[in-house]
DNA sequence: GTCTATAATTAGATAGAC
DNA sequence: GTCTATCTAATTATAGAC
């Protein structure tokens, strides 16, 4: 994890920003692994090798720290953008591939953090809903343009949530240890079906 | 389910069993609403109108209370049994209908309780995985009999988890306020596709 | 059976020395 | 900027009176 050793910059920067970054990285890791409620500020501080008081010094409250950890404005959009570049007839595969590939890289992603925290933390629930709506649902619905676009986009949300919970949180087999290609092969058509499937009813 | 009465009869023998039942009902309600970690014994006691100490008197520990709340052996199987009575070609609809109808009745069902608690509580995670495997995956896989039966059954699990999280925990629209029939119409074919869909790869 | 009192632990947060 | 020390509040859990 967080191999953020300071740059050997000449003159070496007075450590402040470095500690802050380490705290943030560690927070992402622990929040992603145990959720908001089950992660203590003390645990974060210990894992980051700093004093608990410093966490509050930099971030004010636990809630603010979580907000900072979840906010990856700029880091996520590019990945999601790739979903929308390409034909509508293969978008199912691209959604699944992008989702799984990004989440596999680390559990520190906002989606996992929020999905783990949402069930017991009202604020996380709101954040997650907004995140999904803004980054996925709205764009998908706009892309489709059909009358039932909203319902279809929501069905994709169900796939994303189900897949995230099954693979990264509950680790249900054989979903958890399947390869990216296997998942794309299985869930790609399923997501495609949600969007461009049969009768618009 | 269980409408605790509180008989207005003055002088009624204070039945221990009644208090115990009230505690259990209240525990199911709160665990289902906030998950294991975010539900305190005190809150349960207060909502049940008894003393916190009594909760421990009856159930020993918080964990044991949760175990008792989650254990509905005998109450769930019958509902699930109805899924497996009927043709394989319409099982998708039956799965969705049975799931949604039962969960709509109350949030105190084991599935919702466990799904809400699993992300932050390791024991709940195990319980949920075992519950799903035993009650659904194993039976579905056995019913199919195909070589990829396990994967297909797991795909159904993803649907169930996704649907449960979206409708009952995160309350994503328009999934949350959709009618049972709408959901059956939308997700029935999807689940059916998981099980008896295209090429067995 | 029910409740009071309390032990033991742990959480988030703050003040102030250095 | 960093840490020691501490405050306050909440939690699970137990002992024992009635």
UniProtKB/TrEMBL annotation, chains A, B:
- Spell out the Gene3D superfamilies in the cross-references: Homeodomain-like, Tetracycline Repressor, domain 2
Naturally occurring in which organism (per UniProt):
Amycolatopsis camponoti
Q: What is this protein called?
A: HTH tetR-type domain-containing protein
Residue span(s) of domain HTH tetR-type: 17-77
Could you tell me which InterPro entries the record lists for this protein?
Homeodomain-like_sf (IPR009057), HTH-type_TetR-like_transc_reg (IPR050109), HTH_TetR (IPR001647), Tet_transcr_reg_TetR-rel_C_sf (IPR036271), TetR_C_16 (IPR041678)
Q: Tell me if S-adenosyl-L-methionine is a UniProt keyword of this record.
A: no
Keywords attached to this Swiss-Prot or TrEMBL record, sorted alphabetically, are: DNA-binding
Entry-linked SUPFAM superfamilies: Homeodomain-like, Tetracyclin repressor-like, C-terminal domain
Pfam families the UniProt entry points to: TetR_C_16, TetR_N
Name one molecular function that GO assigns to this entry. transcription cis-regulatory region binding
Q: Which residue ranges carry the DNA-binding annotation?
A: 40-59
Q: Which domain of life is it from?
A: Bacteria
């Amino acid at each position: 994890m967080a191999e953020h050793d300071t740059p050997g910059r000449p003159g070496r920067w007075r450590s402040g920003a470095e500690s802050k970054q380490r705290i943030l990285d560690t927070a992402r890791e622990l929040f992603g692994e145990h959720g908001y409620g089950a992660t203590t500020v003390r645990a974060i501080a210990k894992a980051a090798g700093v004093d608990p008081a410093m966490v509050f010094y930099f971030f004010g409250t636990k809630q603010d720290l979580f907000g900072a950890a979840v906010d990856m404005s700029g880091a996520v959009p590019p990945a999601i953008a790739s979903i929308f570049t390409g034909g509508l007839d293969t978008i199912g595969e691209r959604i699944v591939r992008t989702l799984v590939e990004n989440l596999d890289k680390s559990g520190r992603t906002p989606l996992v953090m929020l999905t783990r925290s949402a069930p017991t933390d009202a604020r996380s629930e709101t954040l997650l809903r907004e995140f999904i709506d803004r980054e996925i649902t709205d764009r998908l619905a706009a892309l489709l343009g059909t009358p039932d676009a909203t319902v279809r986009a929501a069905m994709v949300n169900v796939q994303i949530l189900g897949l995230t919970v099954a693979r990264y949180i509950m680790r249900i087999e054989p979903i958890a240890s399947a390869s990216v290609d296997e998942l794309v092969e299985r869930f790609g058509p399923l997501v495609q079906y949600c969007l461009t499937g049969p009768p618009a009813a």
